[in-house]
Design brief:
Keywords: DNA-directed RNA polymerase, Transcription. The protein is an all-alpha fold and 108 residues long. The protein contains 6 helices and no strands. The longest helix is centred in the middle third of the chain and has 28 residues, at 27-54.
Amino acid sequence: MSNTKTIVPNSTVTRDLRQLDESTENIYESIVVISKRANQISVDLKEELNNKLSEFASSNDNLEEVFENREQIEISKHYERMPKPSLVAVDEFLNNKVYFRNPSKEQE
């Protein structure tokens, strides 16, 4: 994810579809770009979360230790409060923070 802080809403936002196809001139192409970026963000977040939670993993977990680990719970809650990858991807796309290209258009 980018280091610059932008305010991305945590809930669904109504969008004007005409804004989405300004850079590609095709709404479907825009949706593909946004969905691929959302997948990238999702994979990065999942990897980051797994790395942070792996610090807490032990070979002999008992049930009490799992439920009592407050730091692990706080990390999980932080990631749950973050905006969904699809919302971040739409925001990045609308603010021209996503690089994309269409090889079939380049060949023409």
